[in-house]
């Protein structure tokens, strides 16, 4: 192809079909295509490639929701010996994940100091300013 679209197309297919079972096996084993859009699709791959390039990285990850990004980020860097320092005023789904789910995996959650936060903080509209390990909270 000698040209490409100025704006990449959006692929809205949720599932993909295969001509043969060998084609499906090839995609599963070698990642040479797509199976299900929530796992991977051409639109998300284009966004990841573009973001990585814009930020100066080789790779980037795109997620279908903020909770998917939060959950994956935390789970990628924690284990049973981990201790997460968080504030209580985070998004409700994040709060549930941090304070109800992670302790069942043996991950300790501490709420004394700020280390993990989303800002602005959801419905509370509290803006957090990080300054050398300190947290300033305002009602702006």
Low-confidence stretches: 134-140
Helical content band: 25-40%
Mean pLDDT: 80
Number of domains: 2
- SSE topology string: HHHEHEEE
Rounded Rg: 20 Å
Portion in strands:
5-15%
- N-end to C-end Cα span: 52 Å
Report the total helices. Answer: 4
- Give the spatial strand order of the biggest sheet: 1-2
Structural class category: alpha+beta
Reported for the largest beta sheet, the result is: 2 strands, parallel
| Number of separate strands | 4
How would the global form be characterised? elongated
Oligomer: single chain
Write up what this structure looks like.
- With 140 residues, the protein is α+β, with helices and mostly antiparallel strands.
- The protein has 2 domains: 1-62, no CATH class; 66-138, no CATH class.
- Helix content is 32%, strand content 11%.
- The protein is built from 4 helices and 4 strands.
- The strands form 2 sheets. A two-stranded parallel ribbon has the order 1-2.
- The chain is elongated and about 55 Å long.
Write a short abstract of this structure.
With 140 residues, the chain is of the alpha+beta class. The chain has helices at 21-30, 42-55, 66-76, 92-101; strands at residues 83-85, 108-110, 127-131, 134-138. The strands form 2 sheets. It has a two-stranded parallel sheet.
Present the secondary structure layout:
Blueprint: H1 21-30, H2 42-55, H3 66-76, E1 83-85, H4 92-101, E2 108-110, E3 127-131, E4 134-138
Parallel strand pairs: 1-2
Antiparallel strand pairs: 3-4
